[in-house]
Known about the structure:
The protein is of the alpha/beta class and 833 residues long. Among the domains are: 43-264, P-loop containing nucleotide triphosphate hydrolases (Rossmann fold); 277-439, 3-Layer(aba) Sandwich (Rossmann fold), CATH 3.40.50.300; 541-600, no CATH class; 608-683, no CATH class. 41% of the residues lie in helices and 9% in strands. A seven-stranded parallel sheet has the order 3-4-2-5-6-1-7, sandwiched between helices. Strands 10-11-9-12-13-8-14 form a seven-stranded parallel sheet, sandwiched between helices. The radius of gyration is 46 Å and the shape is elongated. 27% of the residues are buried.
Amino acid sequence: MATGSAKTVIPHRNKPKTAKPIPKHAEAKTLKRKRGQDDLQKLRTAIEELDPKSADIKKFTDLPLCEATAEGLRASHFEVLTDVQRAAIPLALKGRDILGAAKTGSGKTLAFLVPVLEKLVQAQWTEYDGLGALIISPTRELACQIFEVLRKIGRKHTFSAGLVIGGKSLKEEADRLGRMNILVCTPGRMLQHLDQTANFDVNNLQMLVLDEADRIMDMGFQSAVDALVEHLPKTRQTMLFSATQSKRVSDLARLSLKDPEYVSVHEDAQTATPTNLQQHYIVTPLPEKLDTLWGFLRTNVKSKMIVFFSSGKQVRFAYESFKRMQPGISLLHLHGRQKQTGRLDITRKFTLAKYACLFATDVVARGVDFPAVDWVVQVDCPEDADTYIHRVGRTARYESKGRAVLFLEPAEEKGFLARLEHKKIPIQKVNVRDNKKKSIKNELQSQCFSSPDLKYLGQKAFITYVRSVYVQKDKTVFQFDQLDLDGYAASLGLPGTPQIKFKKGDVLDGKKMKELSRMPVFSDDSDSDFDENGNKKKKEVRTKYQKMAERQNQDVLSSHYRKLLGEDDDKQADGADEDDDFLSVKRVLQDDAEIDAAATGGASATTSIPGIQSKVIKIGETEVVIDSNRKAKEVTSKAKMLKKYMPKGQKLLFDEDGENPRPLYVLQGEDDFQAEGPAEQLRREFVANETVKVAEADLDDKELARQRRKEKRERAKARERGEEVERERGPIAQLEGGDDEDYDPLALLRSLPLAGGGGGDKSDDGEAEAEEPPRKKTKKWFQNDSDVEDERETKKRKKNSSAAGRGKKVIEMGYEPDNLQDLEALAAGLLED
């Protein structure tokens, strides 16, 4: 038998397994990542080969940009490069630091936003890498505008961007800062986050951009910018842009710029402002500025304009006063003291408006792009030529036309025109037509007298303007001693010129102004009686009204200041100016010594006045000397005396003459109280005595109530008996007692019952008790006359039927009885059955 053996096969342990297929989505991601790396490498190569000075670069498509940026620019309709963009973007793409200067409206915003996006794309920046680019703007409005442009051109990117400005919740901003790649901010708010937000890291910052760099680098933001730069890394790319660029070495060293490229495409231009901008100026005295502005608004109601003032208080006063006068054009106002939501809302309204006038300060003078602005009006002279360039740059934006007009005082004309000529700014002088001139001084005066709040704004506007001129550095342009301050105060509608004392070296704010001594002379050294030439100063003559205003009317909202209306018959006798006849004060002060003493709190303030007999009365613990008309009138009012001289909550008793008040309760001395006995025994005795008094008063009250009920029943019975007697007697042919000379024929008539009444019974006090007439219903607004007559007839019928039901007859008279015959006829009718 054949036998066989089975063969065993052992598998090889090192044989490779079959590979699993790669998912399609993972393969697609790999291919996409590879294409992205290839595109990025091509982009970097193109940037290295780019010639920044090539003349072939005219459109955005000629630049080596990533696809996301190119699509965002196409979607936002940006195609052709401007001069500053053509010069700055190629250098920025190569990583160079830039100082960019160009005219207003030339497209500087895109000149730094496009390099910001490309810088982060080349670094392959993600949300986990933290903050990559920081853009700083001097104003909130400009920061909001930059952020909106960034959203438009960066819509295809995956970067996260944020807007950090004041006026919003600091905590909400802090929670989101850690996830932001690009931040647009203002210097103060950004520094606050760097100091207070714990998870905010800027160590990986790639690019720093300062828009309107000359404004950020000046004294207003110097400390904030220096502290902010200390937080930022040194290895970064920095770009500075402005219409008036600063090239000071100290500023560049503070920002750690490395060999910056200076880009100034318009440096060789004939003018520093756009060529399509028509610029004019008007020489107008300070008291006529508002009149000229009003005439300008009335002439250009079909225009869109921005009117610049030097302070926010002037903006508020012009807006509130002109709004009440209704110039025929929509008015808006914008200044730095408004809330952030209000500022954004006003900016939006003015942007969308076709015809409007915006009163504003320099918060919108830089960079803000309002579409289709026809006019820029500068009521107050700007502090320098650079500020003028930025203000007029709000119109004539990027090849559009615009016009600007500047109001100059005669003392400012020569100096400021020289500054403009040095900056290559062409400007022409124009004059106002006589038929367009109109004075609004009377209207403003009327408004200030009728509205204390508007008068308060007028005084604040006056103070802020005077202060702005006083602190200007360029004294050849701003000549403080040439200002007609009295005329300017009158043009604002104020009753007098607010008095301010300036001290050299002081930075005067509202609080310090109130603390300063009230002096009428405006000078650097008011304490001296001699001027700088050694001549004795001529003292200004002050009227009594002005002196009392210095003492009484420091607060324009006081009750006394509200009553400065009407006419004063004794005004001329008191030495008041004839120009102030529309003002009057109810209180006449006697002489200058008393006024000055009252203002300084001296002893002469209580000097007795001729014609008033001085006397002393004691109010509580206070002795009051009656030596003036005011105090003599004051003591006649108990309420005023209590309010002024007595503590609150204390009652007083006066004597029969109304003088010598004393407290209602007088505390007993401690020794006298202890001599009366133990306190507990006194308490028990007091309670027992009061209990007896209460019981006796209760008995008296009950007896009085019983007596009143008894009298009431007796009157009712007497009334019933009188009615029965009248029924038995019947009608009377003639009146008894007619032959008696002393007999009063009307006595019987007075005792007769009237229609609807209860007879002739009288109460204890002698007054006839008559029923209260029914309350008259209120006439509705939709009732007509016929409805009212029908309602009256219905009431009469109800009244007659109710009287007939009680057995009484109602006599209706068509006339009012006014003689004896009419009364006799009425009595005869009442006595009939």
